[in-house]
Design a protein that fits this description.
Distance between the termini: 97 Å
Oligomer: single chain
Radius of gyration: 33 Å
Helix content: over 70%
Number of strands: 0
Strand content: under 5%
Number of domains: 2
Number of helices: 2
Largest sheet: none
Amino acid sequence: MAEIPKHKNFSEAESVMLLKLALVAGETVRKVAADRLKWQRGDEDEGTTDSPSKGANFAKLVELLRDQNEKELQARRYKWRKERLDCQASESRFMQLLELLAKRG
């Protein structure tokens, strides 16, 4: 038997009641978890025994992935534009330097 936790704000009877409630709640969670593990995909003729919300969850996941990919692509495009502008500015400065050296030489 589990040890009854002692707490200064609870009497022994209340502690026993809380322990029983915790055990019942734990058993309920265990049953729900076991039921979810039992779900199996049936044949196409029989239909499926999957979670009713599986399709909705999958659709949400697809939408989140699509949004994430779009944001990543936008970030890459911004980075590419910035790198291209930096490269063009560097080329322009280099050409100005070459022109200056050509005038001196």
